[in-house]
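A student in our group prepared the protein record below, which I am reviewing. What it holds is a sequence and that sequence's fold in token form. My question to you is simply how this chain folds and whether the tokens agree. Do not assume that whoever made the record got everything right. I have pasted the whole thing underneath without changing anything:
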Amino acid sequence: MPRSASAVAFRASVPVMFGYLILGLGYGLYMHNLDFAWWYPPLMAATIYGGSVEFVIATMLTQHFNPLTVLMITFVVGFRQFFYSISMLNRYEGHGLAHFFQIYTLSDETFAVNYTVHVPTGVDRQRVYTLISLFDYCYWIIGALSGSLLGTAFALKIAGLEFVMTALFIVLCLDQFKRESSHLSTVSGLIITILCLLVVGKTYFLLATLVLLVIEFAIVNHQKERR
């Protein structure tokens, strides 16, 4: 049984390593296909560290850039992590500056690992949490850098790779649809998106959709609290 914090953290992070390296590789190739310089993917991976948000922003940077739309997308897509952070407050408590790094790197996978990891007696639990967060963070950056360098070195242009973002969100939507007890959010989201596209056009439909979805979420959440 591993006794050092680094050994415990690395062992727990191995499943994430395989996933992040492969997904990061795809992200790096995707960015290369969009004609970004090789250093863009690792830079965005390190600063945004938002998974699906990074794919969205990569596409938006090739079009008319609207900071407000990016802000709304980031808020809506990443809002679930607000609840992750609440459930991890006690676990991440009292670890100095590392506390802020743990919060910044709290992805879906890191949350799952840190929430369930078994830390042997005598091993610094907070150090394990920090190292797992660091390892996962590095896996994603290395994957993005590898994909970017691979695409640059071999001048890879994979036809249809731009569809990866669409495919990603279709899979996420279907997975959410199967798990949710009520399909109100999924169905209403689809209807609102189509209506906004028809009413305001494709230039501003995304921003209009996000605003309406946030309003809908606030109303539904308020009704739940009143029950």
Summary: Residues 5-178 form one domain.
